Amino acid sequence: MSHRSFAVAAGFAASLLMPVAPAAAAADEVCNIGYVTNGDTRSFTAGIVITNIGPSTLYGWTLKFSLPAGQTFINGWEADFKVDGQDVTGTSLQYNKDVQRGGSVTVGFNAHGNATTPGPAEFRVNNYVCTTG
């Protein structure tokens, strides 16, 4: 192997050992939401995964969303839920309030309504609009 080939190979090998920083979220992106339902035409259970994609730990969080027409919140878990008409607010509990960067917390709820109806149009955490998917 020539000296030049060795230098290129050594440089390539060294690049494999260098840590790669995770892709940075846009300045205003703090959260990503995963939303899934299971049920029938009368009622359903929904799971919401809140992932912290922001630059730092969330020290306490508040989730807000509005249920589509025809859906009615029954009860929820893993957050202190309050309901005002179609508007739902879930506040973190003592044991799940801190979400590290890249970490997630899962909450859920039961509702009356058709499980196949599209979910809430928007989710917010600490008043930031979350990405979905």
Can you give a write-up of this model?
With 133 residues, the chain is mostly beta strands. It has one domain (28-132): Immunoglobulin-like (Sandwich). Helix content is 11%, strand content 45%. The protein contains 1 helix and 12 strands; from the N terminus they run H-E-E-E-E-E-E-E-E-E-E-E-E. It has one helix at 3-17, and strands at 31-39, 43-52, 58-59, 62-66, 72-77, 80-84, 87-91, 98-99, 104-112, 123-125, 128-129, 131-132. The protein has a 5-stranded mixed beta sheet, with no helix packed on it. It has a 5-stranded antiparallel beta sheet with strand order 6-7-4-10-11, with no helix packed on it. A two-stranded antiparallel sheet has the order 3-8. A hairpin with a 2-residue loop joins strand 6 and strand 7. The longest helix is centred in the N-terminal third of the chain and has 15 residues, at 3-17. It is globular and about 40 Å long. The protein starts with a helix and ends with a strand. Mean pLDDT is 86; it is low at 1-25.
Brief sketch in words of this structure:
By secondary structure, the chain is mostly beta strands. 11% of the residues lie in helices and 45% in strands. It has a single domain (28-132), classed as Immunoglobulin-like, CATH 2.60.40.290.
